[in-house]
Amino acid sequence: MTFAEFEQSLKSKAPPRGAAPALAALWWARKNDWDQAHTIVMSQESRDAAWVHAYLHRVEGDADNAAYWYGQARRPIARGTLDAEWNEIVAALLDASASG
User: Fold this and answer.
1) How far apart are CA 59 and CA 95, in angstroms?
2) Going by C-beta distance under 8 Å and a sequence separation of 6 or more, which residues neighbour residue 21?
3) What pLDDT digit, counting tens, does each position of 70-96 carry?
């Protein structure tokens, strides 16, 4: 799936079929359903899920909790806009799923 296809899927009522949990969480986050996105990443133990988890706490405004999850993801604390980070994570996860 391409980035453009993922963005296009936001017009649907559910994430793309077969989307990895971290991507599905980002899909819900973009649909302004923070709770659904958070529920998904809370049940995952991957670095990808931790990265999304960090992003979600940044959206929430909880910098300390976000910092913890960036550490779990082994990622630097994001300093750019939330939109830029969402784009970065989606692109990275799509790239990893395409190559992996």
Assistant:
1) 23
2) 40, 41, 43, 44, 46, 49
3) 999 999 999 999 999 999 999 999 998
Neighbouring residues of 63: CB distance < 8 A, sequence distance ≥ 6: 57
Q: Where are the domains of the chain?
A: 21-99
Closest Cα to residue 40, out of 93, 83, 91, 78? 93
Is pTM beyond 0.85? Reply is yes
Q: Residue 52 is which amino acid?
A: V
Cα angle, residue 73 at apex, residues 69 and 76 outer, rounded to 5°:
85
pLDDT tens profile 21-32? 999 999 999 999
